[in-house]
Amino acid sequence: MTAPHGADSEVGRLRTVMLHRPGDELKRLTPRNNDKLLFDGIPWVARAQDEHDAFAEALRIRDVEVLYLTELLTESLADEAARASAIETTLADLDIGGTMRGYLAGLLGDAPPEELTTHLTTGIRNDEVRGGFGLVTSLLPHDAFLIDPLPNLLFTRDSSVWVRDRVAITSLAMPARKRETQLTELIYHFHPRFAATPRIHGHHYEHVEGGDVLLLAPGVIAVGVGERTTPAGAERLAMQVFDNDLAHTVLAVPIAQERATMHLDTVCTMVDADKVVMYPNVANTLTAYAVTPDGRADDGSLLLRVADAEPFLVAAAKALEIDTLHHIDTGLDPVTAEREQWDDGNNTLAVAPRVAMAYERNDETNSRLEDAGIEVVRIAGSELGSGRGGPRCMSCPIARDPLP
């Protein structure tokens, strides 16, 4: 028996989560390509796998069902229509010439589901093929990727977000990550487990990334707008959740274009219904525009009311109809706060109200959380953190208990 799919908050008891265990795609990273593939470092893959296995086991100990993205993908690719869709979308944007494209179409088409999953996630290098040679591939370096690997699959939060009983397929902004949402959408469309799941948004729409979407409470969603999520993406998502009666307020939160604050969840995550852990350098400057539905135009299209900007904590408390949204600072002093912000101190995963998973290395932040009454489940992340993401980034909640 599986729990119903869906989530209406960040802190309801977690029942089912989708993870991606680090695989051979991380072994494709080199000092020459890691920037292009959006990884800050070159991880020790075996250690990253050990750390991730411990993360998954910590979830299972708390009765959380763990699903793996590649297993779901392989099971989905048993469907011939899914295979055709995966191959078509993968080859569509490749600048490899018609000769190699035709060869790869045959190679991928003949691969059994598990092997096809490997090709789609780990990539294919020029020196790994045995045919399709033409001018394009003759001029490419031997170690050039014909199909790029997807090392950021580790961060399953970004490519989909559940909003109540619907799944929003996001649209990732960076070219190196575009195929992640295409594969995720394929899973939700073709896997038998999700056959009846209504979907909103989609990889072909304006950019919205899951790390920018926080379900503050039933009916209240915060959306970071900055480097990865565009204003147009936030607007479209707001109109979709209003049209489907999934929320009554969306808070659009401008995010500074800084390396350590890529997504909203890199500076703020929820650890209780009225508590967030927050990077102190933004606590007093982060703002929000409250967006609410404002009737319909003559043609039936939804109209939006956009309130003036207010401090984020104030706007969030108003939307939540509480006196105060309490915030717990990362670190104990400015230097520690800066270091633990870089080490994903804010990127916690709530597994229940007042229970959060966090990287063990952030001692000061974890101590502040415990002083505030939050149980901290510490996990190792020396290698997992090399892609700049913590427990929240590495997890896509598929089912949570509703909040009262």
Keyword list:
20 strands, three-stranded mixed sheet, six-stranded mixed sheet, 404 residues, single chain, alpha/beta, 24% strand, 31% helix
Largest sheet report: 6 strands, mixed
Low-pLDDT stretches = none
Q: What is Rg?
A: 21 Å
Q: Structural class of the secondary elements?
A: alpha/beta
Task: Give the mean pLDDT.
Answer: 91
| SS summary, helix count | 12
Fraction in helix: 25-40%
Taken from the alpha-carbon principal axes, the silhouette is globular
In whole angstroms, the N-to-C terminal distance is 23 Å
Number of strands: 20
Strand content: 15-25%
Structural notes for this entry:
The protein is α/β, with parallel strands linked by helices and about 400 residues long. Helices cover about 30% and strands about 25% of the residues. The chain has twelve helices and 20 strands. The strands form six sheets. Strands 8, 9, 10, 13, 14 and 15 form a six-stranded mixed β-sheet that branches. Helix 3 (about 80-90) packs antiparallel against helix 7 (about 180-190). The longest helix has 17 residues, at about 45-60. The radius of gyration is 21 Å and the shape is globular. The two termini are about 25 Å apart. The mean pLDDT is about 90.
